[in-house]
Amino acid sequence: MAADASPFEVLCNILLSIAPMARGRGVITRSEKGERMGRVVVIGAGIVGAACTWYAAHAGWEVVLVDRGRPGAGTTSRGEGNLLVSDKGDGPELDLMRLSRRLWLELGDHLGRDRLELDEKGGLVVATSDAGLAGLRTFAAGQRAAGVDAIDVATAGDLRRLEPLLSDRLPGGVLYPEDLQVQPVLAADALVAGARQRGASTRFGVEVEGAVTSGGRLTGVRLVGGEVLGADAVVNAAGTWGGEVGVRLGAPIPVLPRRGFILVTEPVGPLVRHKVYTAEYVDNVASNDAALQTSTVVESTRGGTILIGASRERVGYDAGMSPKVVARLAAGAVEIFPFLRRVDLLRVYRGFRPYCPDHLPVIGPDPRVPGVIHACGHEGAGIGLAAATGYLVARYLDGGPMPDEVPVSAFVPDRFAEVSV
Amino acid sequence: MIDAGTVTADPVNETVTPVDVAIVGAGPAGLAAAVTCARAGLRVCLIDRGTSLGGQYWRQPAASPDFLQSLVAREAPVSGPGRGPVHPRDLRHLHHDLATFDALRERVGEALHAGLVDLRLRTQVWTAVVTDAAVVTDAPGGTDAPGPAADGAAVVDLHVLGPAGVAGVVRARRLVIATGAHDIGLPFPGWDLPGVMTIGGIQALLKSSDVVPGRRVALGGTGPFLLPVATGLAARGVEVVGVFEANAPTGWWPHLSTVVRNPDRLREGLAYAATLARRRVPFRPRTMIVEAHGHDRVEAVSVCRLDRAGRPGLESVVRHDVDAVGIGWGFSPILDLAVTLRCATRLGDNGFAVVAVDSEQRSSVPMVLVAGEPTGVGGAALALAEGELAGHVVVADLTDPVGTTARSRRTGQRLRTVRRDVVRLRSFATAMHAAHPIPPGWAAAVRRETTVCRCEEVDAATVLEAVAAGADTARQVKQLTRAGMGWCQGRTCEPACALLAAGAAQQTTREKAPLAGPVGASALAGDTERLVAQPVSLGALADLLPRSSSQPSHDQ
Amino acid sequence: MTRPDHVGPGLGFTFDGRRIHHRPGQTVGAALVEHDILAWRTTRHDGRPRGLFCGIGVCFDCLVTVDGIPNQRACVVLADEVEEITTQSGSGHDRLALRDPADD
Lengths: 421, 556, 104
Ligand SMILES: Cc1cc2nc3c(=O)[nH]c(=O)nc-3n(C[C@H](O)[C@H](O)[C@H](O)COP(=O)(O)OP(=O)(O)OC[C@H]3O[C@@H](n4cnc5c(N)ncnc54)[C@H](O)[C@@H]3O)c2cc1C
Ligand code: FES
Known about the structure:
The structure holds 3 protein chains of 3 kinds.
Chain A: H1 7-18, E1 39-43, H2 47-58, E2 62-67, E3 82-83, H3 92-111, H4 113-116, E4 123-127, H5 130-145, E5 151-153, H6 156-162, E6 172-176, E7 180-181, H7 184-197, E8 201-204, E9 208-214, E10 217-223, E11 228-230, E12 233-236, H8 242-248, E13 256-265, E14 275-278, H9 280-286, E15 293-300, E16 306-312, H10 323-336, E17 344-355, E18 362-365, E19 372-376, H11 382-398, H12 417-420
Parallel strand pairs in A: 1-2, 1-12, 2-8, 4-14, 12-19
Antiparallel strand pairs in A: 3-7, 4-6, 5-6, 9-10, 10-11, 13-16, 13-17, 14-15, 15-16, 18-19
Chain B: E1 15-24, H1 28-39, E2 44-47, H2 67-73, H3 98-113, E3 117-120, E4 124-131, E5 155-161, E6 167-177, E7 181-183, E8 196-198, H4 199-209, E9 216-221, H5 226-235, E10 239-245, H6 256-260, H7 263-278, E11 283-285, E12 287-294, E13 298-305, E14 318-321, E15 324-328, E16 331-333, H8 336-340, E17 345-347, E18 353-355, E19 368-370, H9 380-399, H10 406-435, E20 451-453, E21 458-459, H11 460-468, H12 474-481, H13 494-508, H14 517-528, E22 536-537, H15 538-542
Parallel strand pairs in B: 1-2, 1-6, 2-3, 6-19, 8-15, 9-10, 9-15, 10-11
Antiparallel strand pairs in B: 4-5, 5-6, 7-16, 12-13, 13-14, 17-18, 20-21
Helix pairs in contact in B: 1-3, 1-9, 2-3, 4-5, 5-7, 9-10, 11-12, 11-13, 12-13
Chain C: E1 13-15, E2 18-20, H1 28-34, E3 41-42, E4 49-50, E5 63-66, E6 69-73, E7 84-86, E8 88-89, H2 94-97
Parallel strand pairs in C: 1-7, 3-8
Antiparallel strand pairs in C: 1-2, 3-4, 5-6, 5-7
Bound molecules: flavin-adenine dinucleotide and FE2/S2 (inorganic) cluster.
């Protein structure tokens, strides 16, 4: 271990030294001398692939990160970069998110908070009606019971002390101090750069076409054009395209696109202090309805712009513009922040959230093709869940141990047995 | 709540105006297309953000209240001398080929009176969507021409905001995008000082407001456009201390045959050169403005020679005192609508993205045609020809897809001529780009602290750091540095960022695998995708919703 | 159709209180430049002065506050249609940041 190793590296090395003890579930076996011997190909250089690369590289694996485009150019560049505990009720996703939150803070300390634009801004959920407020309070009570820090904001006046420019017509809300924000592309970039220092290599502009197997076991991936990258394990971190990549690897999983638009305003400075959203957001996130759903999500960025979301529709990969969705998002935003009426919209981002039917990501080895580990389908929370996902993937590669606080079985691909086989 | 299936199709709280063809941009290309379509009896909606017809090329003073009458009468109302209204008549010398403009303008005026043209000035198209709306316009001219079913009944909805912020939808069976281009300005130390402008901006000041930017002006960059700006300024008594052209006229030699086949262009160039000589404006080939000096406004420029490899000899600079500077490195086409509609793009002659069109000006999206600069910067004559060609194609599509009527035989002849013109003028444009490349050493004078992104104030050091870290497209640079994330959304700094990124990429190509084809192409379009063609206030957007549904939905 | 509401003689607007006469049809930016005023905004980060750059509504360098509404493009807005132009600093929305909820 280098003499000038940071506390974080020390932590990683400790984890690394624990790993061999809990062998058994590992993808390949490390030599007894502990020298590096496994090669991992990570498919997809979004935030999830970047985190997988980072943790695997820090666990001593030789990682090759491949993407058909540029790092972070997929869905990672289309979202707001919220790391939310506030929108998750008690359950496996909340557990995963809480682990991820801790890891993100560690990553922030290690890579530099400014570099990631990591901001412990906190989330403020507001109700737009008394009935909505009652529902929100019940939801928050459940979260509190699960250990989430959720503070009731009783009156409009209290709300406006937290957010001076909020409308005075809102009955109340709940403050979630634990919610964080990062700039996703910067974060992905920093993770990839950090992994490179640990010997990871990258191949951008190459597309994975299929798996190369021998005796039912994966031995590498074939790129479009014929080149083969030998590998002991392959991580499917292809996000929304994870379903397609799964098919190509012979390990299909049901990941589908859920379209979302985000509005970007002209720079106005840090006028909105928290991530502020309306209570409907939580319902919409969990909804199985294919129809358009919008709820209001407003926040400032470091750059001074304001981001406005969030819409959810299942319209396949329809890449068109939707003025109606944009108008609804704008209307929702000016309702809770009246000053926004005079602020200009400069740009609209459209992205496709990768979702699975049960709204949980797929993280874990595929039983059908030994050597394939999935890490995709994070829907609208992939930025938030990326750190924990990368961490779990590295543990699967090593063969454990799995963190106690996360029910990892909720995320394994085996749960789709009846769907995909 | 709203049905999912109608989300994109169903407009919001906006009146829908069905037309046969919508034309965005009333410059040479748009006017030619509009006149061609109106003449055939199609219902045309001609839209422009500006205050009058003409676009950048034939830019006019802001329309007077009697604009519509003046359109037909040709002349704006006469006013007193001196500080009266800026009058087009006084500015005719700034223009080239005004007779063509006058004729087009007259045709538009006639069509306006005949009710065939819905002219919408000061109107911005903020976004556009292809929809499968079932309700489409009647066949044009009351004939029983085949309806839109022939092409799957898809239409293009243009979402517009008019003069008083009035919102509407123009629903068109065909769209002609003729949105033109704007100058490419590349960074150099001091380029953000007040008084430094693009040459197109100087030309706009002159043509629309009869104002000059200063008394002693230096012009620099590359391309034929420097010449009319210099002559326009000189005619107003401005001392042009020099036209600092990065390339040499000898760059045209390899393209002599192309030049000879375009005698009009040659004559135009020679006329400007003669005027410059007469007015003793120094024309300095193979030179470049490498710095603008001053505190709160520009006071001087440094100029130096470029060597054969296109690198500035920074050790011997000449200083000129000036109070204004104009720069122009060619043009960047305005692609917002085309990209929003997912029209395929390709790399143009100068290495920047343009819309890919076939020999009939059709883009990859069936209802969308593109004419003028967005298909590749080529000047007004080419834009006129492409506009007319697009117009004929639309007419044929909508009135006579099988091409059997007498009219179609008549226009067939004309069509062949126009197509030949387009090919000939396009080859001239290609030669022009070859003779006036951005020199490889354009960035040699840029310093670490030189601003690259004017909106977000991102300096060169920051951009180069991102490039060194692997960013090899303008989009990557943007996401790592914020260059291009500000008010102009990269419209100004994108060329510079792309060049800086590509420069580094070229040096390392041998280690890097090339981008796979389709990804390369979509990355190209993705670089400029904004989905919003013009800034629009959130209030205006919110007001698009009918009152009842302006509450956020509670979908559950 | 595109008729400005109040075109007519007596032309002029104020620029930070100073009367600027202009000719009908001119843009605000052109009228200011004609009066040798080249800058009317300072940037958000470094406070640098800015005025016209592209001159045709693309670059947003020429932003200015027009009749109280910030961030209008001086090269696009017609002088005939405005009364009061004020220089602006930063995002043009800074005023909001100072707002105290107790005020209202
Ligand atoms: C509107 C919107 C708002 C959002 N807001 C948030 C938020 O606030 N917080 C949050 O946590 N999440 C948010 N998300 C969700 C988040 O963006 C995603 O969950 C996350 O980006 C998923 O990351 P990823 O790495 O799995 O996918 P991606 O970033 O899409 O990366 C997948 C990569 O795989 C590559 N790839 C695909 N196929 C192949 C192949 N065959 N060969 C090689 N490469 C391939 C792609 O090019 C791509 O780069 C939002 C999403 C949207 C759409
Ligand atoms: S000068 Fe560029 S927008 Fe006005």
